[in-house]
Amino acid sequence: MGNVIPLHGDPHETTQRLMPWFLTDMLDPAEHALVEGHLASCAECAAELISEERLRIDLLALPGAPAGDWAALRDRALASQPRPGWWASRGLASRVGLIAAGQAAILLLGIGVYDRLRPAPQAEYHALSAPQPAAHTGNIILIFRPDSRERAMRAALDAVGARLVDGPTAAGAYVLAVPQARRDAALDLLRKRPDIVLAQPIDAAP
Amino acid sequence: MSGDRRRQIEAERRSGEADLLARVRLRDLAAFEGLYRLYHPRLSRFVTSLVRRHPLVEEVVNDTMMVLWDKPESYGGQAKLSTWLYAIAYRKAIRARLRQDEPVEDGHRPELGDDDAPPDRDFGRRRAAAILQSAIEELSPDHRAVVHLTYFQEIGYREIADILGCPVDTVKTRMFHARRHLKRKLSGELADWI
């Protein structure tokens, strides 16, 4: 009797299985309406409902359980005192000691957390492969034509006395640093070169 | 009973129970007695459907009520108090049955009557009741529990699933098979005598 029969939405099957709770008025409104609607049109289910109601009445007529013995339970309840919690069962000295120990533990934990989160001091040396911090001293951004050769690029930097401080970026740009007094003149020269697409200042005007 | 009237009674009962429960939390023995008198008949009948021996029924019901007395805070209020108590009683009854329940003659079984007595209407009713009682005892405890909660306690199948800790389809299927079994055993008796 343990196999589960899934309901597949067939109103007849659904009515057959929900009938007990239809009789006791314990269905939700949608289920109740579905069963009621089906009963109006299905003689088999209507007959089944009558038989089910007879069964229910007969079940309810069976003898009930014997009366209980309150006196026995009352004695048990009186004997059962609420158990003090673990904390309440400790003496005063024990509680004070536990509080002090707890505070010490919290302090140690705090020191440990601080130590782990504190920024590490700067290393004195770097491996050659270690990433270098980005230089922020450039004042010109430059983009060469894609087909520019290395020699032409070097010549452009030499022509304006620029130093390459960063790049290429994701967009293929380079950051140059030129003395601030010569920045505008350098920009003019760079913009005139045919192998340069863009030359723009990236700092405030001198 | 109409749905509206039932809901009104249920709301009044839950309100009364909430008051008693609040007092039980303050260790008010009179309030505990109120809940005992409210629930003992229902719990006792439910547990009787799961274990046979009367002393064991009383033990399970009292153990269930003592959970309420000793640990009222463990009832969170999400479910109905009845659902919570039935679920506790069900688990305790299953454990008690595994531990020590043995089949014994049920002192509350309706008498079949003397086979030589004339077939009057009362005799027929008693006979049908005895057959029904016997048919119920042939069901598994899980099937009996579903029949009991559905018809004696008038609990919906979703709440029964919560109490028994099983899927709702299992509740419907158990009820379907239990009804089929009872009707098969009673075939002829109900039609003749009721």
How are the SSEs placed, and which strands pair?
The complex is a heterodimer of chains A (206) and B (194).
Chain A: H1 11-23, H2 29-41, H3 43-60, H4 70-79, H5 92-117, E1 140-144, H6 150-160, E2 163-166, E3 173-177, H7 183-192, E4 196-201
Chain B: H1 3-25, H2 29-48, H3 54-70, H4 81-100, H5 121-138, H6 141-152, H7 157-164, H8 168-186, H9 189-193
Helix pairs in contact in B: 1-2, 2-3, 2-4, 2-6, 3-4, 4-7, 5-8, 6-8, 7-8
Largest sheet properties of chain A: 4 strands, antiparallel
Taken together, the total number of domains of chain B comes to: 2
What is the end-to-end distance of chain A?
Answer: 93 Å
Helix content of chain B: over 70%
State the share of residues found in helices of chain A, binned by percent: 40-55%
SSE-based structural type of chain B: mainly alpha
Give the ordered list of helices and strands of chain A.
HHHHHEHEEHE
Order of helices and strands of chain B: HHHHHHHHH
CATH H-level superfamily of the largest domain in chain B: RNA polymerase sigma factor, region 2, helix turn helix motif
Share of residues in strands of chain B: under 5%
Q: Which residues of chain A form runs of ≥5 with pLDDT under 50?
A: 1-7
CATH fold node name of the domain at 140-201 in chain A: Alpha-Beta Plaits
Number of helices of chain A: 7
CATH class of the largest domain in chain B: Mainly Alpha
Task: Please characterize this protein's 3D structure.
The complex is a heterodimer of chains A (206) and B (194). By secondary structure, chain A is α+β, with helices and mostly antiparallel strands. Chain A has helices at residues 11-23, 29-41, 43-60, 70-79, 92-117, 150-160, 183-192, and strands at 140-144, 163-166, 173-177, 196-201. In chain A, a hairpin with a 6-residue loop joins strand 2 and strand 3. Chain B has helices at 3-25, 29-48, 54-70, 81-100, 121-138, 141-152, 157-164, 168-186, 189-193. With 194 residues, chain B is mainly alpha-helical. Chain B folds into 2 domains: 3-100, Rna Polymerase Sigma Factor, Chain: A, CATH 1.10.1740.10; 121-193, Arc Repressor Mutant, subunit A (Orthogonal Bundle), CATH 1.10.10. In chain B, helix 1 (3-25) crosses helix 2 (29-48) and helix 2 (29-48) packs antiparallel against helix 3. Chain B is globular, with a radius of gyration of 19 Å. At the A-B interface, helix 1, helix 3 and helix 4 of A face helix 2, helix 3, helix 5, helix 6 and helix 8 of B.
